[in-house]
Design brief:
two-stranded antiparallel sheet, single chain, 221 residues, 20% strand, Alpha-Beta Plaits, alpha+beta, three-stranded mixed sheet
Length: 221
């Protein structure tokens, strides 16, 4: 089964936050709500100061903690185990992505929709801080990989990417099938499936097997 995910080259990130802005504009997110966010870290390495920027969002994990924790089953993975949902949401014509998606509300889909009950268990369970509670709209929200763009025939092929990738000015972010990413298309130097050491905001990847690959910043442990 294909699994889509991220390659993040931390060397390139300049903390311009264009990825944050592109995401907010794409989904018209209210003030204070972010699906993608940039973590800024400062410290010393070998006696020299450093500053590191790590762009973060939902990792679309193999074992998503948010889906396990949600008592009403609002989160689901786009894979063969959910063929009924793929058919119900008109996704059968698209390849499986492995993305962790959010079911529409009951008002949007009375049959397959699920309303957030605001328990915030997904917020507590996610080791990456991806689900956020939207205080304006009163429900939890997170990155869905801009699924609505990926297979949209009205967009030219080069625009069928998440908005954060399209707006990243430094080519830090790439989004693709992990098989393609692991094949070296976006570079392989010092790439790791785990968090860069010292990145406290990024949990042990063995917990959920996140779909992300990092190229750590040079000369920083």
């Amino acid at each position: 089964m294909p699994q889509y995910g991220w390659h993040v080259n931390i060397n390139n990130c300049i903390a311009c936050r264009a990825c944050e802005g592109g995401c907010k504009q794409e989904f018209l997110l209210p003030v204070g709500m972010r699906r993608r966010f940039v973590v800024v870290q400062e410290g010393t390495s070998q006696g020299k100061p450093y500053r590191r920027h790590i762009t973060m969002a939902c990792m679309h994990c193999e074992k998503p903690a948010c889906a396990i924790a949600c008592p009403v089953g609002r989160y689901w993975k786009d894979d063969a185990s959910n063929a009924d949902l793929r058919a119900a949401f008109g996704m059968n014509g698209n390849p499986e992505t492995g993305l962790v998606l959010i079911k529409p509300s009951k008002a949007e889909d009375p049959v397959n929709g699920v309303d957030c009950i605001r328990c915030k268990r997904c917020v507590a369970a996610c080791p990456y801080g991806a689900p956020r509670f939207d205080e304006t709209n009163r429900y939890t929200d997170k990155c869905t990989g801009c699924y609505h763009r990926l297979f949209n025939p009205s967009l030219p092929p080069e625009r069928r990417k998440p908005s954060c990738v399209l707006t990243c000015t430094a080519l830090t972010l790439h989004f693709d099938d992990l098989a393609t990413i692991d094949g070296g298309t976006y570079g392989t130097a010092n790439r790791t499936t785990g968090a860069p050491s010292g990145a406290q905001e990024i949990a042990d990847p063995s917990l959920t097997n996140p779909s992300v690959r990092f190229t750590p910043q040079k000369n920083i442990p």
